[in-house]
Design a protein that fits this description.
Blueprint lengths: L1 E2 L6 H9 L10 H13 L8 E2 H8 L13 H4 L10 H13 L5 H14 L14 H7 L6 H7 L3 H8 L13 H4 L11 H11 L9 H4 L2 H11 L3 H4 L5 H12 L5 H15 L1
Antiparallel strand pairs: 1-2
């Protein structure tokens, strides 16, 4: 269950009827405002998004284990992460956890371990495309030969426009959308289609302002990836290395950096559990 601005259908009508609104089946600003007011008066996080938790409380049905919850620093002992995770990242965890179903320390430890590794210790929020000619042929051999690699080396805008052109909703190379929608955030959200999906969920225009993924939503964008791809069900399997490997394969496509991911998972889980 996920209803928010832009949603349409019979469930939206049912929601509007419950809130005493005109039931046109279209979730707009008026419905969002009414939802926020109802959530606030019923002790829920007032974000205007109807997930399983809000729906269950509103209609009196049984909640599921994955219902969104209002997450506090005390629930996760976030103070224990100080010195291990940057303060600016710790400050984003509670809100991100509430929005994206990070409901226990196990999920959070798996999530942070992957984000930390992929971003070089939560430092990299934008894809580095400053490749040499040799690096281009080794990494993107499908798009570059020895001749074209020399023409494109050390030119990130040209490289991304070629590699990501006509893919993931981007326009052709000349449109430069491959560069505009290059990887950003702790897990490198890439491509116009993915920016649009993330922006729709966050009610943010990321097509016009893609840099927000790096500056405002580096953690939220990564959590959106986990939630959208149902990685929490893997995280819930446990705290052994085999589970970390399963999560890594979904994030990375292989097991690159597995020793570092495993080390950080153990560190974060010991601190949080």
């Amino acid at each position: 269950m996920l209803l928010k601005v832009g949603s349409k259908g019979n469930e939206v009508k049912q929601l509007q009827e419950k809130l005493g609104l005109s039931a046109d089946g279209s979730f707009g600003p008026g419905t969002e405002k009414a939802v926020k007011e109802w959530q606030s008066s019923n002790g829920l996080k007032s974000d205007g998004i109807v997930g399983d938790g809000t729906w269950s409380k509103m209609f009196g049905v049984t909640s599921t284990p994955n219902d969104p919850v209002v997450v506090t620093s005390s629930l996760f002992k976030l103070e224990k992460l100080k010195g291990h995770v940057p303060d600016v990242v710790i400050a984003q965890i509670s809100d991100t956890a509430s929005k994206f179903n990070i409901t226990n320390p196990l999920r959070l430890a798996h999530f942070l371990a992957q984000c930390g590794h992929e971003s070089g210790g939560f430092k990299l929020v934008s894809e580095n495309l400053n490749y040499s000619a040799e690096g281009l042929t080794a990494t993107f051999g499908k798009y570059f030969n020895d001749t074209t690699a020399v023409q494109y080396e050390k030119k990130p805008e040209m490289i991304a426009s070629r590699v990501y052109g006509n893919r993931m909703g981007n326009g052709d190379e000349a449109s430069k959308e491959g560069y505009k929608f290059r990887g950003r955030g702790f897990l490198q959200t890439t491509g116009k289609d993915n920016y649009k999906k993330l922006g729709n969920f966050l009610n943010e225009d990321l097509i016009t302002n893609p840099d927000l993924v790096a500056t405002k939503y580096p953690l939220a964008s990564a959590a959106f990836f986990f939630d959208s791809n149902k990685l929490w069900s893997i995280c819930d399997k446990g705290s052994d290395r085999g589970v970390v490997e399963q999560v890594t394969k979904r994030v990375n496509g292989g097991l690159i950096g597995i020793d570092d991911r495993w080390k950080h998972f153990q560190q974060y889980y010991n601190l949080l559990a």
